[in-house]
Each structure stands twice: as C-alpha cells, then as structure tokens.
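User: Some background: our group keeps a shared notebook of sequences we're curious about, and every so often someone picks one and asks for a predicted structure to add to the entry. Today it's my turn. The entry only has the sequence so far, pasted here. Could you supply the structure so I can complete it?
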Amino acid sequence: MTELRRQKTLVQQRLDAYIYPVLSLPNEIISLIFVHALPTHPNWPTFAGPGSPTLLTHICSKWRQIALSTPQLWAIIGPDHTSSASDNVAMMHRQCVLTETWISRSCSCPLSIQIVNANGEKPDCPPAVYSAIAAQRDRWEYFEYDVVRPNMRLFSGPMPLLRHLRVYLESGLLGPSIITVGHAPLLRSALLGGHALKHVELPWTQLTSLTLEAISPPECMPILQQTSNLVRCRLALILLNEGVDEPVNEVTLPELHSLVLNGQGKALTQRLIIWQLVTPALLCLECRELLLGPHPITTLLSFISRSSCKLEGLCITYENDSAFSLTDYRSAFPMISNISMQEAQDIGGEYPEEVD
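Assistant: Of course. Here's the predicted structure to add to the notebook entry:
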C-alpha cells in the first residue's frame, strides 16, 4: 500500500509539472482564438451556454482572466434565450444585469445589439435595458430591433458608427410617430419589415443594401425613388387582391448589381413591380415567377431590353409547378450564362452582411 501511495504521488507530480500545449500559448494568441471561435454578427451568442463567451470563463482561471480582458467577446449582445417566460420578474432582472455587465466588459468596442420581443411570450424589454443600450448609442455598429411596441426614444440621438440597421415592427404605432435615424454617416445596410416602413425614416440616399419585407409594391416604390445608390436590393412583397390602375412611374437604380424579388399572394392583375424598375448595371436577378405575370418570359425580355442590362445570373423561383421549364428559360435567354430554377422559400430573408 505504501508503494502504491508513492507511485500515485509521483504520477500526480508529473501531471502537475506537465504544461498543456494550449496553456503555453501567449495570452494574446488565446484571446484571438476566442474571438474567432465565437459567433459574430449576423449570428448572436446567448448570455450562457454554447456559443457564449461566459462559457470560456468556466474552463480555468487563466481562460477566465483572458476572456474577461478581451472586450470584443462581449460586444455582441443578443436576446436572452436562456430565461423562462414563466418567471417574468426574474427574467427582466437577469436581462438587466447581464446587459449592463456585457456593455461594461466590452469597454469601448463597437456594439452589435439585437432586441427581439415579437412572439408575445415575454414582456417588453425592461426600461433599464433600454436605458443602458441607449446610453451607448454612439457605439452601435449593428442594431436589430424586432418588437411589438417600440421605444421611440431609443433612436433619438446620433449613431456615428452604425453600419447596419434592422427594424421589424409587428404592429403599427398610434398616430404619426416616426423613428428618425439622423446622424449615421456610416449606415449602408438596412432591413425594414412589417409596419416599420410606415414609421422609420432613414438617410436613404447613402444606403447600398436594402431589404424590405412584408410590404405591398405601392408602399416600397416611394422608398426606392430615394435609394439611387443601392447595389443590393431584396423585396419580399405581399400582393393584394385589388388591381392597381395608377400610371407606371419608373424608378431607375443606376448602381444596382443584385436584385431579389420575392412575394406571396395571387394578384396577377396587380401592376407588376418589375415594369417600374430600370436597372442598367444589374448582374444578378432572382425573381418569383408569380411576380412576372402570366407571360414571365415576355416580361423578362421587356425588362432586360428596357434596362439595357447585361445579366450574368438569373434564378426563377416558383411555387408548386411552373408553366415553363429550365430549358424554356435558357432558350429565351442564351446571353445569360447562369440560369437556374428552384422552389420558392418562405417570404423574407436578407443578404449576408456586406457593408461598403
């Protein structure tokens, strides 16, 4: 027994003297590994669990020290997915504490923030959280806001670092309330959905990427008239049953390279939005066949001729069965090198973040 204890002591001494390779790396290298291992915008970490920087603080004291001294790890603040909606008071308190803690740990890093409360299962974002986030408005870089009842004062101030803004309002505001994004010189990318288009005012001319979701064609055209510098545009349309007899007002988007037209509804009598667009620099077009009317090939030929664009890619999305085959489209457009067809996905979506 004495010999076994002696051998155990020797083994333990060897283990204690062994330095694991990862622990021999300089702290700066480990910090960089942490930054590249965790989710970044447009993905969002949770406050705890897999993908959270909090998990790194539970491994060992050295990793905890490195994680807490790496501000970039704490600069992406998403919704608290770990709280139970059944305990609203505790959840709100937890959200306040964690939000303030992460903001403090992020030091002066630009912030990516996501506020989501659209499913009705949780209470409104606590006022203390709104206050903490609003106080850092000058550090917002990516901001996503998906709520039922918006806090108007959240946006009242300059946002000098803001590059991407997503606002989705589940219901309209009472009265003519407007969320105005004023001083945001770096803003290039935006996504507006639901009722947001009626209540959000952006510096439209400086945008190069725009997604509009769940809106009707008449609602989006006045916005497109102000976005002459768009390079990428995605429209997820809701088609109404009524026809539109208003005259066509063409909108020219001279810099547009990529256009996605999605939609749901059966309003083939409605004015086709593609008739109203002129896109001379367009290279890639993805379009729901429904939006091309009863004669999609003829509509596309007219659009390409009117725009004088040189398309390199064309993707036709369809629901159920298409009246035309891939061979039909390739025969009609031999000048387009890449033509494909696929079943339409649910309305919505946005581009991977590409900020100019």
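Suggested note for the entry: Residues 207-239+249-343 form one domain. The first helix runs from residue 2 to 17.
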